[in-house]
Specification:
Blueprint: E1 2-3, H1 9-25, E2 35-36, H2 41-47, E3 66-71, E4 78-84, E5 98-102, E6 107-111, H3 117-133, E7 141-145, H4 150-156
Length: about 160
């Protein structure tokens, strides 16, 4: 939402209502930002002809699938990459651990039925740290429990 320098309260309110409507239509997944005063230069660059067809977001920087395992099997909770690209397979998912399934545009936290309490508790923080380390802080994250994961995992791996 961009509130120009001469924008009055009624215009701001109407714009806010429109943003709320968009968020509701998109089930709360839309993000909004409010700029008061001068329009940032980055907005103009996004509106240039032809720019909308390109993948400009850091979220879609790398479409290579990756599978990371979060485990405390050795007594210390740690994350390690176990597969990448075509090697990623649902057969690698172990019910005793938590996994991050990165498909480039989305990150799934797969929680095995027999994962330890620490693994379950820290899976989301590992996911956030992983995305922050890759400058993909806007990438959506979905937690999927093993018993409900068959349809989701079959669609992405």
């Amino acid at each position: 939402q961009i509130n120009g320098e001469n924008c009055d309260k009624d215009e701001k309110f109407k714009a806010m209502q429109f943003v709320i409507k968009i968020k509701e239509e998109r089930n709360g997944k839309a993000k909004s930002y409010v700029h008061d005063g001068e329009v940032p230069d980055e907005v103009y660059s996004m509106l240039e002809e032809g720019e909308g067809d390109e993948k400009t977001s850091a979220v879609i920087e790398n479409d290579t699938k990756r599978l990371m395992k979060i485990s405390d099997q050795d007594g210390e909770l740690k994350m390690e990459k176990i597969a990448e690209g075509d090697e990623v397979s649902k057969d690698l998912l172990d019910p005793n651990d938590v996994f991050l399934v990165d498909i480039g545009t989305h990150l799934y936290v797969w929680v095995g039925n027999d994962a330890s309490r620490d693994e379950k508790k820290n899976g989301m923080s590992y996911a956030c740290n992983y995305l922050n380390g890759e400058d993909r802080f806007n990438c959506p994250i979905t937690v999927v429990l093993q018993e409900q994961a068959k349809d989701v995992i079959n669609g992405i791996i």
